[in-house]
Write a structure and sequence with these properties.
- The chain has 4 domains: about 130 residues, Rossmann fold (3-Layer(aba) Sandwich), CATH 3.40.50.2300; about 120 residues, GAF domain (Beta-Lactamase, 2-Layer Sandwich), CATH 3.30.450; about 80 residues; about 140 residues, Heat Shock Protein 90, CATH 3.30.565.
- Helix 5 runs antiparallel to helix 6 and helix 10 packs antiparallel against helix 12.
- It is α/β, with parallel strands linked by helices and about 525 residues long.
- It is rod-shaped, with a radius of gyration of 47 Å.
- It has 13 helices and 19 strands.
């Protein structure tokens, strides 16, 4: 059996005979190189533990200045990383078991002790303690990685993320200090955050942000090595930070992703901790996760900038389009005024009618552009408001003083694109104008109906009717020489690609059906 050598054993035992016996047992094992030391009371043992360099403690629970479970608890608190074995008498085995439950490695009855058992138990105690320490180490690693990953997922502000990562590394992993620097151009630090020694962190951040980089930082930026370990014996020359990390191992890790250097991660270990391959792997993984988080933020900021640019461009175009509609409306109103002046100046009735009809068509188109200019939606017209306004204009243009005309309007608030609204508006204008002019001659009362609706599938139905005198006998719109009705046929069948039906029964009805794409949001 190969025995561990060079182990410093602290025996806290007040019985000189038992202490001498245990020392003899340790010396009897061939190849053993134990270095036993004795303390005959708890206070002396605690002083020796405070000096450090003890590999294992052999503890008697009954001492002059302490007894029972409190003895173990006090020693364990003094040296939590040192394995503790207890010696028990026949009457305190139950007490020893409680101590094991509290963290002791093992216990041995004094009346059954021999050298082989003692040495084997010491070896197992040390190995178990190493395993416990390693498990504790792994738990802190997992906690640190989990904490960093949660921050990367949840935190969207870069500076806050860097600061919280540093805090997580010092709290969960137990580093003396941690710093994270974010580079703006591969050389200049835009942000440096840290956690640990408050005064030193502030001083470090101030110097690095000001461009005064320690030699280790300069080397990490200049070299391609992703991981640089600075050992405890390094010479830091006149570095401004040499006093803060003297005698401690440190590491600087490049924070890289997709070929881009985002910054540096620096950690300062406790004096009794060194960086092994496992620790190196942890730090490289954390640095990679941080780099990915920063990369993701960068991508999101670039989507956001693009969205802002598109939104700004759309707003500019909306303002421009609104201004175009406003100017077109103004120009059409000027044309309408000119036609109105010509109509007033003309003496021939046919000329006056032609000019008036042209003016009404111009007013219809001006009304569309006016409604678009005033609407929040520049791509579509709400037909109900449009028809109501057009009827109001026509009543003013064709006053029928001797006839009381009832207007029945059933129009859905369905939005139409301007490419549909203009021909529909011109059709409605022409047919209503004809009705006001011809349908109610020598009538005391009459009725005009406008029905306009659309289905979910995009089918549109337009019906304009009156209960007036009706159309002449044998009327055929396909053979009509009237410019207005020819325009209605062209607009309905050619531009709207619809079906036109004329019914002359108890008045006149024009039915038009066509298809159009449904406006989103309608």
């Amino acid at each position: 059996m190969k025995i561990m050598t060079g182990l410093k054993v602290l025996l806290i035992e007040d019985n000189p005979g038992d202490a001498r016996l245990i020392q003899e047992m340790l010396s009897e094992v061939d190849g053993s190189m134990f270095e036993p030391e004795s303390a005959d009371c708890l206070s002396t043992g605690l002083e020796r533990l405070a000096a450090g360099d003890i590999d294992v403690v052999l503890l008697d629970l009954g001492l002059p200045d302490s007894s029972g479970l409190d003895t173990f608890i006090t020693v364990h608190a003094q040296a939590p990383d040192v394995p503790i074995m207890m010696f028990t008498g026949l009457d305190d085995a139950e007490l020893a078991i409680k101590a094991v439950q509290e963290g002791a490695q093992d216990y041995l009855p004094k009346n059954k002790l021999d050298s082989e058992l003692l040495v084997r138990t010491i070896r197992y105690a040390i190995e178990r303690k190493k395993t416990e320490t390693h498990i504790k180490h792994l738990n802190s690693v997992l906690k640190a990685i989990r904490g960093v990953n949660q921050l990367i997922v949840m935190e969207k502000d870069r500076d806050t993320l860097l600061q919280k990562v540093c805090n997580t590394l010092t709290e969960a992993r137990g580093y003396d200090a941690a710093w994270l620097g974010f580079l703006s151009n591969g050389e200049t630090f835009a942000t440096v955050k840290g956690s640990g020694f408050s005064d030193d962190v502030a001083r470090f951040c101030e110097h690095v942000l000001g461009g005064d980089h320690p030699p280790c930082i300069k080397n990490a930026l200049a070299q391609n090595d992703s991981f640089v370990v600075l050992d405890k014996t390094r010479e830091c020359g006149d570095c401004f930070f040499k006093d803060a990390d003297v005698g401690k191992e440190a590491a600087i890790i490049r924070v890289e992703h997709a070929g881009k250097l985002f910054g540096l991660l620096a950690v300062l270990l406790a004096p009794d901790v060194t960086i092994d391959e496992e620790e190196k792997g942890i730090l490289e993984e954390v640095a990679g996760d941080i780099a990915f988080g920063l990369y993701d933020m960068e991508v999101e900021e670039a989507r956001k900038r693009a969205e802002d640019q598109i939104e700004a461009s759309l707003k500019e175009k909306e303002v421009l389009l609104r201004e175009i509609h406003h100017r077109v409306k103004n120009n059409l109103q000027v044309v309408s005024s000119l036609l109105n002046m010509q109509a007033r100046a003309a003496k021939d009735k046919d000329t006056i009618d032609i000019l008036s009809e042209s003016r009404n068509m111009i007013n219809t188109m001006a009304l569309i552009h006016s409604q678009l200019y005033e609407s929040g939606n520049l791509s579509a017209i709400n037909m109900k408001g449009f028809v109501d306004n057009m009827l109001r204009q026509l009543v003013q243009s064709y006053p029928v003083q001797d006839t009381k005309i009832t207007q029945i309007v059933q129009v859905d608030g369905y939005p139409f694109p301007i490419s549909v609204a203009v021909p529909v508006g011109l059709i409605v204008n022409e047919l209503l104008s004809n009705a006001f002019k011809h349908a109610f001659v020598n009538r005391k009362e009459g009725k005009i109906e406008v029905s306009f609706g659309a289905s979910e599938e995009g089918g549109v139905s337009l019906a304009i009717s009156d209960d007036g005198v009706g159309l002449p006998k044998g009327f055929d719109i396909n053979k009509s020489k009237t410019l207005g009705l020819r325009l209605v046929k062209i607009l309905a069948e050619d531009q709207l690609q619809g079906k036109l039906e004329v019914i002359s029964k108890e008045g006149t009805t024009f039915n038009i059906e066509f298809e159009t794409e449904k406006i989103e949001g309608s």
